Amino acid sequence: MTSLADLRKSYERAKLSEDACHADPLRQFEQWLNEAISAEVPEPNAMTLTTVASNLRPSTRVVLIKGYDERGLTWFTNYDSRKGQELAGNPFAALQFHWVELERVVRIEGLVEKISAAESDAYFHSRPLDSRIGAWASPQSQVISGRSVLLANAAKYAAKFLLQPPRPPHWGGYRLKPDQWQFWQGRKNRLHDRLRYTLSPGDQAAPVCQPIWIRERLAP
To answer: 48 pairs with which residues across the strands?
Structure first.
């Protein structure tokens, strides 16, 4: 059996320099995401979401990014789930993308809020029928007696709504508005490149819609 302590990998695919990266972290993220998609890495849209409960215990799970723009990064889920309950009590969260094949990590922190009902409706009705039924069938994060509960619920709601299930009131989108980004590029000899962007309050002359980001290099 291979010892875990002996597992090694030398990161030598690319580098991340201040001169070559974007001043706007959203543009840098967009570039890296597009490169991950083009490289056909498995599920390039998968991101780890970390929330913290009122008892200060953190929890993580993988969700899928469904959109991003200057307002933030968006995903969809059950509002009554563990993550939904934790976000209701503490709206700050963190996201992480790990594109292993490209030796890259992106970390994002910020405030989370629900998106509008209209946005949630639009995305919900774009989903496959089975996924829309599934949103009704799964009491996410609750204890159930067995898989039969999910199958029975799916059959019940499929019969009830036929081809037009409405969006459940407990299901919709969240948006994380970043105030910090980190971009990590693996490098040889563990001397990795790590750049952090921190949102600055800016000055009075800067337009409100134009955030000011402070970029710094961190030791790996």
So the answer is: 62, 96
Which range of residues forms the domain containing residue 141? 128-166
Query: At residue 189, what is the residue type?
Result: N
Least confident of 29-33, 137-141, 199-203: 199-203
φ and ψ of 23, to 5 deg: -70, -25
Q: Cα-flanking dihedrals φ and ψ of residue 157, to 5°?
A: -75, -30
Same domain, 100 and 185: yes
103 in a structural domain: yes
Using the predicted structure, report yes or no on whether residue 7 has a pLDDT greater than 90.
Answer: no
146 and 184, same domain (yes or no): no
Dist CA 75 CA 67 (whole Å) = 7
- Measured from the Cβ of residue 31, the count of other Cβ atoms closer than 10 Å reads 12
Residue 63 has a CB neighbour count (10 Å cut-off) of 16
In this structure, the answer to whether residues 115 and 61 fall within a common structural domain is: yes
- Regarding whether 114 and 71 lie in a shared domain, the answer is yes
Query: Residue 35: in which H helix or E strand, if any?
Result: helix 25-38
Q: Active-site positions?
A: 190
Helices and strands per DSSP (H, E), number in the chain:
5, 9
pLDDT, tens only, 185-197: 999 999 999 999 9
Please state the domain count of the chain: 2
